[in-house]
Amino acid sequence: MREFVFTVEYERGADEVMDLFIENPDLHSKTMAIHATSESMWRLDRLTGPTEALEAFDEVIEQATRCNGVLGMCGAPVVEWEYEVLSETPNGRIVYSCREEGDGIQSIPHVAAKHIGDGLLMQAERRGAQNQWRLLISDDDTVSEIYEEVKDSLSDGLSLSVQRISEPECWLEESVSADGLPPEQQAALEAAVEFGYYETPRQHTVQEISEELDIPNSTLQYRLTRAEAWLARQFVTGTLGTEVEDRVDPEQLEASA
């Protein structure tokens, strides 16, 4: 299998919901699941960000006149779609959406399903001006076909770039695995949690915990710092971070057809 990663970039004003992402760099959307058939597309998205930005999202989505990228579209007029906020917190939403396919511009998942057929697996992520898609594809001919159809379907104010066609890189489970964390750092984190170091207010200091564990204060602090850095890297691994400049030349796609 090959991983096909491409990004649709939006100009300000091209999409109602996309403008929220452009105006709020901390607003982030990532799919939990996407499914598509010849007749419809449905998906779950997890949105995170500032409370104000998510409240603005709620208002815009209620009045949306176009099926926007969060719901899987490339700027196409509404045919028939529905959505529901399944979970809501001050800094998060889980949104279900379903869209029936009609004539004219189709959703990106529908285009992918048309060319890939059974077994479609894809992810999508949105931040800033970018909506990035990842597909698992078995042959390069299919890559070229999807690229051409998506490119031809983009509405004004949208542009397309390809980041990579390579061995799969970002299809591991999102839950953090401790396999890469040294045992002493894992033990330090577990002790810190057990002693309430991460509670608010903090229940014990690093020095107090180190005394309980009978290890030097500096050693425990070092292990915690290293473990926290590892957790931070795990958290951002696989998130939308590909620069738009890191493109694959479109002629490479055409040559593969």
UniProtKB/TrEMBL annotation:
<dbReference type="Pfam" id="PF24281">
    <property type="entry name" value="HVO_2928_N"/>
</dbReference>
<dbReference type="InterPro" id="IPR056529">
    <property type="entry name" value="HVO_2928_N"/>
</dbReference>
<dbReference type="Pfam" id="PF04967">
    <property type="entry name" value="HTH_10"/>
</dbReference>
<dbReference type="InterPro" id="IPR036388">
    <property type="entry name" value="WH-like_DNA-bd_sf"/>
</dbReference>
<feature type="domain" description="HVO-2928 N-terminal">
    <location>
        <begin position="3"/>
        <end position="171"/>
    </location>
</feature>
<feature type="domain" description="HTH bat-type">
    <location>
        <begin position="183"/>
        <end position="231"/>
    </location>
</feature>
<keyword id="KW-0804">Transcription</keyword>
<protein>
    <submittedName>
        <fullName>Transcription regulator</fullName>
    </submittedName>
</protein>
<keyword id="KW-0805">Transcription regulation</keyword>
<dbReference type="InterPro" id="IPR007050">
    <property type="entry name" value="HTH_bacterioopsin"/>
</dbReference>
